[in-house]
Each structure stands twice: as structure tokens, then as C-alpha cells.
């Protein structure tokens, strides 16, 4: 199969619709990361996503719809706070989990009675979703457990020969996946942290919990299980207060002619002297935007990436730390 990166225009959208209608998958941009989309109503098309990615079949997918789509076609029991949150933050990087009507393929939610729905704000995503006129089930457009793609070239590097079309929408501005919010209870609960923070949700909904999965429980959202976001090289993660230990580790490897770099925020990079450093930026928004891009850059250039956690770990940084921890752990 020949994989092509195409500019989003009438011709590429027409081809994409043909592929989707035929049960295939198309990679498309969002404001967070690139998605690998297929018809959410088609069992075989959804199952094919898991095959293309090598994704475990108990890891749920998110259904993407355009901004004018009536989600009551797909879900039920939408609480008042969810309506207010949608008015405040959608389209945007917020996925909301509701009770499902069972209209989409059961493979989307891996047998759960809930459905995760997202309305991306990226102009290219909106054009694609409106053109195909279907709910699109989509995880990130990469090989399972690898660093999520934030450019069309990243998608190509992982999925060349596995899909026909990658719609090119430029570099994703958000940089980490959407916040996933359980809206099936009296109080919303974050299943996966992201750019829409707990504080932002509480401001609208009045309160917001952070869900902690129980051992052995079936996961209710993408990103809650397994190793994720991992570069194809060795990684290490040090807390902010362990910066000196990180430098010692760096020097040990560098002195043995091992290609090593630090991955950290601008302030920490400034303290690293002449050591190789992948600079994530100086604020939460920039750090989130640059995280996967720099991890991908690092795996191309170095044998070991030594990450140092930023000092601040709330707000957007909660999502960043979630990704860094999963990228650098060994399971």
C-alpha cells in the first residue's frame, strides 16, 4: 500500500470519504495530535484501526464529530454541567464520556456501556468530519505505545504502507491528547488529564474529581493503561528536585561516548551548561505543545533521553506529567 501525505482540499477530502465509506482508515489532524479515523458504525473498520496500530483490544477509542453534529444520536443522559462545559470549551481539546445508545460499533468502547465523544476545533479536522458526514472513531495515528504524532511526517514515519492517506494540517498546536472527562455521574471526573484542566472544569461545573482506576478494572478511557508515548530509545525521568542526579547520570553516559540529552523546561535547560538539551519551553502551554515533538526529535538523535520534570505539576502540567511518566516507565 502506498501512503500519501495530502493537503486538505476538495480532492483529498473526496478521496478520504471514499476510503472511510469503504471501511478504511484515514489519518487527520486535530489541535492535539493526529488521529487515525474510521467509520464508528462499521465493526470491521473499527477493528482495523486496532490492527493497523497494534493497539490492545481493551483500550477504548474516542468518537470525533463536527461542531454541528447532534450527539444525542449517539449518547443519552447528558447532565446540565456537561451542557455548560460543552458551551464553554467545545469545539476544543475536551472529550466527554456519556452513557451510550449503542448505535456505534461495540468495538469503539471495547464492550463498555459508555461512549467518549470529542469535537475537535482544528479547521482541518472540522472539514474532514463534515465532509465524511459520519462519527469517526479515532485513536492517535501512530504505532501503539510510540510517541503520539504531531505532524503529518510523524504519522508517515509510523504508518507508511499501512494506510493510504494522511491529511496534512500542519503541526498540532496543543501537543498532548484531549482531557477525557467522565460525565456519567453527579460530578464530572477526569479520566485523562489534558489541556482543559481540572481548574477550568471546576470553574464551570462547580466541582471536578480526578478518577483513579482500581487494579484489574477495565479501562474507561484511552491513556489509562499500558505504556504510552514512548520514544524508540532509552529514557529516564527525574523529579524537579533531582536535577543534580540527572546531571550525574548525563555525565556518566556522555563520558562513555553514549549519545545522551536532557529533556526539560527552559529554566532547567539554562542550568545545564554545555550539555545537549531539548528545550520544552518556559510555560505550560509551550511545554505541552513541544513535548511529543521533542521526544520524536530526541529518539532520532540520541540513545538516551533524560527527562527532568518541571517544577509546577498542576494545571496543564498535570497532563504533561501524565505523559512523561507513561513515556518513561518500563511497563
Structural features, described:
- The protein folds into two domains: 4-210, DHBP synthase (Alpha-Beta Complex), CATH 3.90.870; 234-328, Rossmann fold (3-Layer(aba) Sandwich), CATH 3.40.50.
- Strand 2 and strand 3 form a beta hairpin.
- Helix 1 crosses helix 4 (123-132) and helix 9 packs parallel to helix 10 (316-328).
- Strands 2, 3, 4, 5, 6, 7, 8, 10, 11 and 12 form a ten-stranded mixed beta sheet that branches. Strands 13-16-14-15 form a four-stranded parallel beta sheet, sandwiched between helices. Strands 1-9 form a two-stranded parallel ribbon.
- The chain is globular and about 60 Å long.
- With 331 residues, it is of the alpha/beta class.
- The chain has ten helices and 16 strands.
Amino acid at each position: 500500500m502506498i501512503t500519501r501525505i495530502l493537503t486538505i482540499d476538495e480532492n483529498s477530502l473526496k478521496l478520504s470519504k471514499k476510503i472511510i465509506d469503504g471501511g478504511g482508515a484515514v489519518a487527520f489532524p486535530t489541535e492535539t495530535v493526529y488521529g487515525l479515523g474510521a467509520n464508528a458504525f462499521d465493526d470491521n473498520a473499527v477493528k482495523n484501526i486496532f490492527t493497523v496500530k497494534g493497539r490492545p483490544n481493551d483500550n477504548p477509542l474516542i468518537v470525533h464529530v463536527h461542531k454541528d453534529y447532534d450527539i444525542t444520536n449517539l449518547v443519552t443522559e447528558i447532565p446540565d454541567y456537561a451542557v455548560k462545559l460543552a458551551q464553554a470549551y467545545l469545539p476544543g481539546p475536551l472529550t466527554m464520556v456519556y452513557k451510550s445508545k449503542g448505535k456505534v460499533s461495540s468495538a469503539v468502547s471495547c464492550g463498555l456501556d459508555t461512549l467518549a465523544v470529542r469535537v475537535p476545533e482544528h479547521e482541518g479536522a472540522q472539514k474532514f468530519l463534515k465532509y465524511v458526514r459520519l462519527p469517526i472513531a479515532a485513536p492517535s495515528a501512530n504505532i501503539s505505545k510510540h510517541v503520539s504524532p504531531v505532524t503529518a511526517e510523524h504519522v508517515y514515519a509510523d504508518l507508511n504502507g499501512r494506510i493510504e492517506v494522511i491529511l496534512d494540517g500542519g503541526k498540532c498546536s496543543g501537543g498532548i491528547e484531549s482531557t477525557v472527562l467522565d460525565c456519567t455521574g453527579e460530578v464530572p471526573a477526569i479520566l485523562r488529564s489534558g489541556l482543559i484542566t481540572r481548574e477550568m472544569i471546576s470553574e464551570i461545573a462547580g466541582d471536578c474529581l480526578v478518577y483513579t482506576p482500581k487494579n484489574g478494572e477495565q479501562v474507561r478511557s484511552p491513556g489509562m493503561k499500558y505504556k504510552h508515548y514512548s520514544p524508540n530509545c532509552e529514557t529516564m525521568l527525574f523529579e524537579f528536585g533531582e536535577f543534580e542526579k540527572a546531571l550525574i547520570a548525563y555525565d556518566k553516559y556522555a563520558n562513555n561516548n553514549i549519545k545522551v540529552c536532557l529533556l526539560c523546561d527552559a529554566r532547567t535547560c539554562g542550568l545545564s551548561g554545555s550539555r545537549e538539551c531539548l528545550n520544552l519551553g518556559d510555560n505550560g502551554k509551550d511545554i505541552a505543545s513541544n513535548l511529543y515533538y521533542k521526544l520524536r526529535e530526541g529518539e532520532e538523535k540520541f540513545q538516551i533521553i533524560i527527562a527532568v520534570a518541571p517544577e509546577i505539576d498542576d494545571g496543564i502540567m498535570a497532563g504533561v506529567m501524565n505523559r512523561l511518566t507513561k513515556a518513561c516507565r518500563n511497563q
